Amino acid sequence: MADTLSAVPLLETPRLRLRTVRRDDLAAIYALHADPRAMRYWSCAPWTQAQQAEDWFAQRARQGETEEIWPWGISRIGADTLIGLVTVFAVNRSQHRAEIGYLLDPAHWGKGYAREALRAALAYGFEALQLLRVEADIDPRNEASCRLVEKLGFRREGYLRERWRVNGEITDTALYGLLRRELTA
Ligand SMILES: CC(C)(COP(=O)(O)OP(=O)(O)OC[C@H]1O[C@@H](n2cnc3c(N)ncnc32)[C@H](O)[C@@H]1OP(=O)(O)O)[C@@H](O)C(=O)NCCC(=O)NCCS
After folding, report:
1. Is 112 in the pocket of ligand 1 (CB under 6 A)?
2. Domain 11-137: CATH architecture, name and number where available
3. What is the pLDDT along the chain (185 residues), one digit of tens a residue?
4. Probe target for ligand 1 pocket from 145, 152, 173, 175, with the most ligand atoms within 8 Å of CB
5. Which of 7, 29, 62, 149 has an alpha carbon within 20 to 30 A of 56's alpha carbon?
6. The ligand 1 atom nearest the CA atom of 118
7. Contacts within 8 Å (CB) and 24+ apart, 106-110
């Protein structure tokens, strides 16, 4: 099995490093996805078995072989432990657009880390990948996520009803979009 997911360039922000995800991050990745607080508005139920992290890693590694995907692990400067993930996926080169997803350890919420990490990944997408538009699919009840993307300049462009079925719950999507010229400084 691969030792890493798709290799991504190292991006450094004042407090964070966005780096390639490795097999030795699996325990941290499991802890993130097993935390009900972090998974409240996610597209699957909280994980309950360590094997789910193995399966996730294998599936993501395979996905990286056939699709363009940029999966960054987030760690703090000076501490290599993975505290979150930010992924640019569904990259459509001919249309210059992609989607973004993100997940941060609740122990680190409310410090502006997600904004710092997303801004770096978005800047990379707009500059290096020449994207012109990035989308985020958010549960409208997820206030933290809505606020996060709005502060980065995203606009709420659409409301898609009953788009997800997670753990017996039917949920809607607030579809957000950010154009290259709109990313806030
Ligand atoms: C969404 C998430 C990444 C935000 O991480 P974070 O590091 O706490 O966010 P930041 O500290 O960068 O905050 C960004 C903005 O959101 C606001 N915010 C953060 N948590 C909030 C909350 N619970 N309610 C309302 N606003 C909130 C912050 O105040 C800040 O806005 P401000 O500049 O006006 O103060 C984090 O809550 C998370 O990982 N959630 C679980 C996974 C998830 O839902 N991912 C998104 C799926 S679409």
Report:
1. yes
2. 3-Layer(aba) Sandwich (3.40)
3. 789 999 999 999 999 999 999 999 999 999 999 999 999 999 999 999 999 999 999 999 999 999 999 999 999 999 999 999 999 999 999 999 999 999 999 999 999 999 999 999 999 999 999 999 999 999 999 999 999 999 999 999 999 999 999 889 999 999 999 999 999 87
4. 145
5. 149
6. 12
7. 106/35, 106/37, 106/38, 107/83, 108/83, 108/84, 109/144
